[in-house]
Amino acid sequence: MALEPLRPDEAVELYLEDRKSELAKATQYAHSSRLGHFIRWCDEQEVDNLNELTGRTLHRYRLWRRADGDLAPPSEKSQMDTLRVFIRWCGTIDAVPTDLWSKVVSPSLANGENSRDVMLDTEVADGILEYLSTYEYASERHVTFLLIWHALLRRGAIHALDVDDYDPQEMSLDVRHRPEMETPIKNKFNGERFIALSAETCSVLDAWLADRRPDTVDEYGRTPLLSTAQGRAHLTTIQAYVYSITRPCVFTDCPHDRDVSQCRAASDRSQAFGCPSSVSPHAVRRGAITHWLNSDVPEPVVSARANVSTAVLDEHYDRRTERDEMEQRRRYLNQV
Q1: pTM of the predicted structure, to 2 decimals
Q2: Degrees, nearest 5: CA angle 216-218-223
Q3: Which of 97-101, 171-175, 256-260 has the lowest mean pLDDT?
Q4: d(CA 96, CA 89)
Q5: In a 3-state reduction of DSSP, which class is residue 229?
Q6: What radius of gyration do the chain's Cα atoms show?
Q7: Hey, what's the torsion of the CAs at 88, 93, 95, 100, to 10 degrees?
Q8: 253: number of CA atoms within 13 Å, CB side?
Q9: Among residues 311, 312, 280, 305, which one has the least CA distance to residue 152?
Q10: In angstroms, rounded to a whole number, what is the distance separating the alpha carbons of residues 176 and 178?
Q11: How confident is the model at residue 196 (pLDDT cuts 50, 70, 90)?
Q12: Domain 118-282: assigned CATH number
């Protein structure tokens, strides 16, 4: 097979355009971000033609990415899985040998290492909320964390909220799907719903709107609830807020025996994901759902509030142990 020369950046551009119709916008963004590191490596190594790639050079990229990004195993796996898919696609357009994709090594994860099993414990969440209420009341991180932990919102829903979607009199949020203005939500129109808020959450939102929220609008003239000096808070910005506030050194001692003054994850918010104990918004939401279920809130109520079916709730979110469920049943049976 005769290979045809192709620059790495051009290949990534063609790949993303080719898969645009089949990938969700968030997934396309994730692929673009991950492959951006590959383009950067190619620049550093002066690889200007994908024809030059071999299994050995791809292994060197993996080692470089691991050292460059201080990646946790699940993150490294997602990086290499995306690269494998990309290299396989490159083989279909004669940019690399058709079997090269099989030489992209992705790490195997040990039990409990998969990001789907990671969740924030209730005790940790309580510590974070106490810290935020004391030192960062009504800050962007306080608002974000409350909307995930108490309202069970995904980061996409937080991103989509406007100021007008919050009703302080009714103490509620109106979650809407607005893809034509670049604020889609998961499950689309089936994900639209009203969310009842506690008095505590409303007090934080009221203070945020009155004193802390940057007075900006987005490119559609809408007033985002969670705004920055540049406009609507991006999905990655929301994620960065969560990674940074879930670092243990923010609200307690470091459990990893690191020198906080020398730790990049501790000193630089943008590197917070490098902390072994920091977690993603999804892990916070998973922990919140489990917390609600452990607090004897009926599954249909949690299902409707979190906008997940009871089947998905059981399979992907409910992290109660069999003993936890037994003790909950016991509390009900003792009342009979």
Answers
A1: 0.65
A2: 60
A3: 256-260
A4: 9
A5: coil
A6: 22
A7: 30
A8: 3
A9: 305
A10: 6
A11: very high
A12: 1.10.443.10
Structure token digits, residue 74: 């699940």
- Cα distance between residue 16 and residue 322, in whole Å: 44
| Count of residues in the chain | 336
Q: Domain-by-domain residue ranges, the chain?
A: 8-110, 118-282
Dihedral of CA 18/21/23/26: which sign? Answer: positive
d(CA 35, CA 15): 10
> Over the stretch 145-185, which tens digit does the pLDDT of each residue have?
999 999 999 999 999 999 999 999 999 999 999 999 999 99
Q: Are 132 and 142 in contact (CB under 8 A)?
A: yes
Distance, in Å, from the CA atom of 316 to the CA atom of 65, rounded to the nearest integer, reads 29
CA torsion angle 89 94 96 99 (round to 10): 70
| 163 within 8 A of 286, measured Cβ to Cβ | no
251's tokens: 């609200």
Closest by CA to 295, choosing from 83, 125, 156, is 125
Read off the amino acid at residue 43: D
pLDDT band at 265 (very low <50, low <70, confident <90, very high): confident
**Would you tell me which CATH number, out of the four given (3.40.50.2020, 1.20.1090.10, 3.40.50.300, 1.10.150.130), belongs to the domain 8-110?**
1.10.150.130
Quote the CA–CA distance of 265 and 69 in Å, as a whole number: 11
